[in-house]
Amino acid sequence: MQRIRKGDEVIVIAGRDKGKRGIVLARVDERHVLVEGVNVVKKHVRPNPLKGVAGGIIDKTMPIDISNVMLFNPATNKGDRVGFKIVDGKKVRVFKSTGAVVGSK
What we know:
The protein is mostly beta strands. It has strands at 9-12, 21-27, 32-35, 40-45, 56-61, 64-65, 69-73, 78-80, 82-87, 90-95. The strands form 3 sheets. Strands 6-3-2-1-7-8 form a 6-stranded antiparallel beta sheet, with no helix packed on it. It has a two-stranded antiparallel ribbon with strand order 4-5. A two-stranded antiparallel ribbon has the order 9-10.
């Protein structure tokens, strides 16, 4: 089971975007995630008239290592570690500091 999934709100704990919050858009692989508004770079794009792509400089969101983000805990307004518990026969993610189930309001 993954500690950080698509749709989770995370906070960046290391790197040039430290302190920024965003939603996980996708898991690129086991170690990297795409986070909305984090690790945005300028990318030079060559025009391709066959595909209808205009050339120029675009902003592109690049993957960030999963070790540089923490799940955001709305109860404490901080990043929090994630653990697992069995609740009603199902394995669920819980915040380490409060013990609350991740995703429940």
